Amino acid sequence: MKKTVIITAGGIGKRMGTKLPKQFLLINGKPILWLTLKRFYDYNPELEIILTLPEEWVEYWENVCVNYDPIPHRIVSGGKERYHSIKNALEVASGELIAIHDGVRPFVNDYTLNNCFKMAAEKGSAIPCLPLKESLRQKIELQSKAVDRSNFLSVQTPQVFQRELIQEAYTIEFSKDITDDASLIEKLGKKVHTCMGNEENIKITSKSDLLWAEVFNKVYED
Ligand SMILES: Nc1ccn([C@@H]2O[C@H](COP(=O)(O)OP(=O)(O)OP(=O)(O)O)[C@@H](O)[C@H]2O)c(=O)n1
Ligand SMILES: C[C@](O)(CO)[C@H](O)COP(=O)(O)O
Questions:
Q1: Closest CA to 1 of 92, 84, 121
Q2: Ligand nearest to the CA of 179
Q3: pLDDT tens digit string along 15-25?
Q4: How far, in Å, CA of 103 to CA of 114, rounded?
Q5: Which of these, 100, 180, 191, 209, has the minimum number of CB atoms within 10 Å of its CB?
């Protein structure tokens, strides 16, 4: 089955708060986004890689790439929200299986990737998840109440789908409650299948994540 990965890097990283969008920050001397691309290229060099970038950062990225080992990829302009960036990328994706992965998750491992691609090939969809490690409370107006954490999962990427399914899902209009691709599949009335992710597969979002990223990167390089 031909596989595509859409790597989303069309955002500007407001929560990180750096001038340079977070996907271009260096971890042990290498850009986060290049580490993510390399993760997929090392997993399977046959994968079609499509990268979404803010239009105004495309030239910057092309200049950065000259300094690192080449990884073939096609660039597509990002949109206003993650949803719009992915919609643009889906127009050119040619794989029968399509993985959608955050450009700021460079530590997804082979175990997670194998789980996702295998399950999506069999069942149509697969999203990597982990059980929660902390207690969970639900906000109720100015109060809160403890809830049973075993009823919840934390969701990662790549979220992998058979092409027809994800293309149909992206005909649904954008709304603010769409925080990932699986929520669109659900809006279609289709089942979302979950598999195990890996703990290092963090989404680099704020400054403290950069410290973890340096540690994980050192472990991956050894
Ligand atoms: N219009 C957008 C917004 C986000 N993304 C990408 O989706 C991934 C996950 O989003 P998030 O971590 O929220 O990144 P940002 O939107 O850049 O961060 P923030 O919300 O803090 O501004 C990131 O790789 C981001 O670049 C995208 O492709 N297009
Ligand atoms: C897609 C995602 O990474 C799954 O956990 C997450 O929903 C992205 O959320 P954000 O609002 O773009 O940070």
A1: 121
A2: 2
A3: 999 999 999 99
A4: 19
A5: 191
Give residue 28's identity as a one-letter amino acid code.
Answer: N
pLDDT digits (tens, 9 = 90+) for 32-73: 999 999 999 999 999 999 999 999 999 999 999 999 999 999
Q: What lines the ligand 1 site, CB under 6 Å?
A: 8-15, 23, 52, 78-82, 85, 102-104, 203, 205
Question: For residue 161, what are its two tokens?
Answer: 């789908």
Q: Looking at this protein, which amino acid is placed at residue 219?
A: V
CATH of the domain at 71: 3.90.550.10
Which structural domain range is residue 87 located in? 3-221
Pocket residue to mutate for ligand 1, from 5, 51, 104, 107, most atoms within 8 A of Cβ: 104
Question: What domain count does the chain have?
Answer: 1
Round to whole Å and give the CA distance between 45 and 2.
12
In this prediction the ipTM stands at 0.97
